[in-house]
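If you are new to this repository, start here. Below is one unmodified record pulled from the training split, so you can see the exact layout before writing a loader.
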Amino acid sequence: MTAGQIERQLPEHERGPLPARLMEAMVLVSLVVAVLSLFGLSWLAGEMKEGDTVRFDLAVRSWVHQFGSPAMTGAMTAISLLGYSILIAELVIAISIFLYLGWRHAAGWLAVSMAGALALDLTLKYAFHRPRPQPFFGAAPHSYSFPSGHALSSFCFYGVLAGLIVARTRSLALRVAVVVVAALLVISIGLSRIYLGVHYPSDVIAGYLAAAMWVASLLALDRWRVRRKKLKAP
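And here is the target side for that same chain:
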């Protein structure tokens, strides 16, 4: 990346508010996504509690497991680390870089999104108490299964990070590349948890829905805060 591709200066949404209509549209879209994700998560949780996801979970687990091989297992184990262990180091590095560049708003966004992701993951896990499936490879983690913390955390981190970089990037090609890489990482991490057998597929979907709800809610609150600040300004 060159200095011309990523601006060191603050982006427009940190320098000042966006046009009123655009902010209102962003708030509305964010609220719609948050509400739909909440309904989707609630429905999936109800189906899971009733045992109606069992056939789907077992079918997907069986289909994914047929691709098992030593090479694939090694690759999926490494990818899975990107959803938690390595992600923590990436989070510290990303926040440090943002603060160095003067992107305080971006650093705060990333920190709050990940703190909320952790709280949401723990709350949902202890609310539903879903036991882990029998893992295909390695030992099962000691935490509960629903939702997948790796799916939730990776969606929040890589999704928010991609959004923050895209908002500060001039190159269209670079914007597309960042979004594609982030999407592939999030999907791959979710698949790795299913492949390793430490999560049911419905756990991974629930993690994505919970993350979408949280990130969309944050975006709506942030745009509402900026809009309110603009109205109060002289």
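Two things worth knowing about this chain: Residues 1-18 have pLDDT under 50 and may be disordered. DSSP finds nine helices and no strands in the chain.
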